[in-house]
Amino acid sequence: MTAATQPPRSYDVIGFGDEVPGVLALVSAAREYRRRTGKAPRSLLMFKGNSQEGVGGHLVRGGLAYLDRCTLSADIRQAYGLPTFGAPSAIYQEFLQRSGVLQIGLDPRKADAALRAMLSEIGADIISRVQIQSVLKDGKNLKGIQLATGNTFLGKQFIDSSVNAELAQMAGVKKLQGFATFDLPESELPVTLVFESQGLSVQRLKEIELNYLKRFTNRNDAEAQRYLAIAAGSDPMLIDQIRKSFVDEKGNLRTMYVGQDHIDIRSRALSVTYHAFRGKKMFLAASGVLLDQANIAILPGGRLSWNALMFYVTGAQAEALARGAAKPTPAMLEEIGFVTQWLKSFGATAVKAASELYIRHAGNVQGAVDPLSGAQMLFGGVPESSAIGTFGYYLDVRGGITGLGNKALAKGMSSISFHHPPLFNIGIRHALLQAVPNLAVVSPASGFDGYACAAGRIVEFNTAVGHGVGIAAGIALASDRALASITNAEVRQVLTTTGKLPRIYGQSYVLEATKLQDFESIMIA
């Protein structure tokens, strides 16, 4: 029997995309269904990447080992008696524990093993390297997915965790490209090619950085000042900006911070040396590439994982890269060759790029049951009585949104920066869709408006949403309801009953939220 004539295979829940929030949503769905019925549902995970390179999307194949964690001020931690990163969802804590994470550094190899174990425990089937040919619909509901191979997979509930909501798009859900939510469809956050270095110790890296910091702050060091001029493209304003990154408010050198399992690079000294070596201006839109201040995960075996090398992309390019299984372009791989030369000059023995890109954002779906804006996040998110968790993160559009400043100026607004990090209560309704009631999008492409995707793209947040969406899918399956009809309160009740509800401590920052609300309403108009 050929693939084209194989009978359809039926499942209860199908996950498209293997980003961590999606995998854990599938696991949550199976656990909740079993809790309610005593039976294991039939679960399928399908994704575009190659499972032989690992399961776990951009954290695993994309090598993004430095985890973005919940951001909390010291006074909030003290007031609520919370640890450094607050109270993550129970399933995220389980994932971190099973992956051996101390604070921030996630070894992709251990993450792959943990996710495979969790999928194995629910009896999920895994199919990788898939290409969707078409979808089957039953009225508004999604009924099945036909692959380019001719195989068809039928399902009752569907969870899309792809960065570009590809399954949702195929199912007829409208998706805005880039930042079309701000009427900037060709503006997009940069993509990153994460790389690992070997042979370069933390101590050696500290010495190198300190040496360059001393040299760059010494105006009499002619060679160092020449490097600085090259990296800044001889732009006096940029030279001044870079110089300010070398010292803190008290005038002390801004050296790297070394934690238990991670390094925060706080100055642009190392970036200057790379851009001087490349003869490329440290300006993303102009050069197309930027070695940013690195977030580095310290991994076993002397490996350092660098989240630093950013590439400029348009909205259309981000979508195309996502559809192409996040594979880096030849130009990006060529840049890694230069990174290798640069790091080897400091003593690294090897540099290895991840097999996939970290694509931060690739547009947002329209028609969520309850869209979520940046202002709503600053107002504190969903009501405390129905919240399933709390998350805090800066409205950080790393690399910037091209054209937003000019557009804002044209509308009479001088500032586009909102520095106060929201601390907001989490729900699931921005991930549920009116147009396809049995499909959820749990990713940076969920129903975010305006600035919301800045915090909404973070894995820790989306995993909390995914936990809730999984529970909702379990409820929907067991009671034959539409996924989109499940409320936050119903999910919260399950978390309460099972002892899995984390602390809820969202805050409403009315002044900042009102400012952002005004900005978003004018810009989104």
What tags apply to this protein structure?
globular; alpha/beta; eight-stranded antiparallel sheet; single chain; five-stranded parallel sheet; 525 residues; 37% helix
Strand-helix topology:
Layout: E1 9-10, E2 13-16, H1 20-37, E3 43-46, H2 57-60, H3 74-80, H4 90-98, H5 108-121, E4 125-127, E5 132-138, E6 141-147, E7 152-154, E8 157-160, H6 166-170, E9 175-176, E10 191-192, E11 195-198, H7 202-216, H8 222-231, H9 236-244, E12 257-258, E13 262-264, H10 269-278, H11 284-287, E14 289-299, E15 303-311, H12 315-323, H13 330-344, E16 350-353, E17 358-359, E18 364-365, E19 372-373, H14 374-378, E20 389-392, H15 404-410, E21 423-426, E22 439-441, E23 448-449, H16 452-456, H17 459-479, H18 488-497, H19 510-524
Parallel strand pairs: 1-7, 2-3, 2-8, 3-4, 8-22, 19-23
Antiparallel strand pairs: 5-6, 6-7, 9-18, 10-15, 10-17, 11-15, 11-16, 12-13, 13-14, 14-15, 20-21
